[in-house]
Amino acid sequence: MRSRAALRTLLAATALASLALSSHAGAAQLLTNGSFEAPNIGTGNYTYPGLSYGTIAPIGATQGGWTFSGSALVNGSGGNAWYGGSAPSGMDGAQFVALQNNSTLSQSFMATASTLHLSWLEAGRTWGMGDQSYQILLNGAAAGGLFSTGSDDPFSLNTLTLGGLRAGLSYDLTFQGLVNSGDETAFIDNVQLTDTLPPPPPVAPSIAIIGASMAIGADEFMIEDFDTPIATGFSFQQDGAAFVRSGALGLAPGVSAPPPGDTTNYETILTGGHAVLTSLQGLKSLSLYMGSPDSYNAIRFSGAGSFSWTLNGAQIFNNLAPADGDQSFGRRVNYDFGSYSVNKVEFFSAGNAFEFDAIAGALRGGAVPEPATWAMMILGFGAVGATLRRRRASLTHA
């Protein structure tokens, strides 16, 4: 929810920002520390390798196989002066790096074939300082043209084919920032280089707008309405930038707007907020009632088989609704996952706010299991009481 006067257009982030690369990770990796998890700098910290800036003691310019120059830095997850309360959605692991101004990030590798495939995730810094362009250099020569990020972009996937190599020879791979003004910064994560093509992204879910009310589909059951106990076998967690609010309170200007006609409790995800719905059994479809959609809202679906779908802004409504914070707009949207089974749904927002209610779904294999069946499963995890209660524990970002 935002006022139209405050509306500005954000660069649309690529769909499937958090494409699961774990199957690609099974190929022989020619780069080390591609997710920048070493050294572990700790939650909420940042540091400029080779420089005496940051929240931890200075460290050398070469770390975990990468050499940093200029104002390239490492960010840890959690609250951070570089991005506020939480990192952009779609990050891999707990740390990522940043290209600020004309900084560089480089690593040498030994080619194993004449053609190699490079993939990485990119995101834009918040606060209007993420409009950065950068290039990939191979032995100092540009490869693949220019790449760019937009402010507040979540992590999205890039790929580049490197040809004309000679197996057995060493090469230098470099990421170089190009915008030397205004602290413009691109975030980089999960850099992988192999002689195998990355897997194609899974087919996106089929999206349908099924109504302008909270009424659920005939084949669905209510999972979470924020008024009654959550359905057996599910949990809902949120961090400190998300909360349940009563629609009867009406509009909270600049903070939260109830989905149209909703006078019951509903969920609000504020700037940098994150909430997660999990299921013990795979979902074949899910729907929810959403109001005043914004370009900075995002939903990520993931499940067995190491796959992930991320939808941003108008993509959440299959581009059939404006993402401009119209407080009079509310729809129930259904996501059909086809042959995939989803057991985790994450909600993000890069601005105030993302509002939704009445999460419903259909399980793979039919009806909801009897409570006794769920209880037997849950006993195996030693958490019967915790799961059968409504759970909204504080969520710690990974």
CATH homologous superfamily heading of the largest domain: Galactose-binding lectin
Category from helices, strands and their pairing: mainly beta
Please tell me what the overall shape is: globular
The CATH class of the largest domain: Mainly Beta
Percent of residues in β-strands? 35-45%
- The number of E-state strands comes to 23
Overall pLDDT, averaged? Answer: 82
Helicity, as a percent range: under 10%
Q: Would you list the SSEs in sequence order as H and E?
A: HEEEEEEEEEEEEEEEEEEEEEEEHH
The value of Rg in angstroms is: 22 Å
Taking the alpha carbons of the first and last residues, their distance comes to: 27 Å
As for the CATH topology of the largest domain, it is Jelly Rolls
Second-tier CATH architecture of the largest domain: Sandwich
Can you walk through the features of this model?
- It is a single chain.
- This protein folds into two domains: 23-194, Galactose-binding domain-like (Jelly Rolls, Sandwich); 206-388, Galactose-binding lectin (Jelly Rolls, Sandwich).
- Strands 13, 14, 15, 16, 17, 18, 19, 20, 21, 22 and 23 form an eleven-stranded antiparallel beta sheet that branches. Strands 1-4-5-12-7-10 form a six-stranded antiparallel beta sheet, with no helix packed on it. A six-stranded antiparallel beta sheet has the order 2-3-6-11-8-9, with no helix packed on it.
- The model is unreliable at 1-25 and 371-398 (pLDDT under 50).
- The chain contains three helices and 23 strands.
- The chain is mainly beta and 398 residues long.
- A hairpin with a 2-residue loop joins strand 8 and strand 9.
